[in-house]
């Protein structure tokens, strides 16, 4: 995992009996049994009358396939509290997705997703990629997953990565849902990468009016607290700007940094409690285009846009 800025937070002098409460205030684990279904429902609403309705409908089907893939899916090994605590003391994520030895159940999830998507209308590139998946072996799947996790997917495989990502989200969100996060009280700070799996944040989330900006993991869907006065890309203070997406009533915003010229999209759930990070991000791509045209660079891409 490459070095990232460390956002120091007040986790000192936490009494043992209060560790669980302290961690709970800083980190929210995903609920895979509900997450993909709720995401699908949100995308279905956002697709109505949307200029990218066909793509959003495809994503509805993909999220439904992720939800169906969960049924009776084996979990595989999960790090115990000692391993989580050791990683936290070293300033590492609890389960470093780049280095973690994945259980083959993630490939079972991929096969299930592919089977469910067989008759779904989808972009031509996605259809061709889906056909390819039926012909590939386990080594190819593992290699492409590794490339995706380190950010090295070749252009020819970007459409394939949409399905690989879907399966990896199922796999890592289930691990994040069950690990003992109490051990994370030893982590020396909150980093710009997910403290559970090490992936980059997809977006910032605001839950209450005037509340803190939390970060939503693009891979395992953990939500964690970060220092609000620091850039989520470079860790700088100062030179921060805020931009609102037109016609969204302040629900979709961007937090920019003049130093590194990156931006983080912010989803304000206090203005719409039905908002969901990945769904609302996909449905507001026009805002991203405007920001890029203005010279800003996105902190981390939505993983389902790698297919173009």
User: Proportion of β residues?
Assistant: 5-15%
Number of domain modules: 2
Provide the CATH top-level class of the largest domain.
Alpha Beta
How many β-strand runs?
10
- Classification by helices and strands: alpha+beta
Which stretches are poorly predicted, pLDDT < 50 over at least 5 residues?
Answer: 1-20
Tally of alpha and pi helices: 10
Report Rg.
19 Å
- Percent of residues in helices: 25-40%
Sequence of secondary-structure elements? EHEHHHHHHHEEEEEEEHHE
Average pLDDT:
86
CATH homologous superfamily designation of the largest domain = FdhE-like domain
Sheet having the most strands? 8 strands, mixed
Task: Using brief descriptors, characterize the structure shown.
308 residues, alpha+beta, FdhE-like fold, 2 domains, 8-stranded mixed sheet, two-stranded antiparallel ribbon, 10 helices, 13% strand
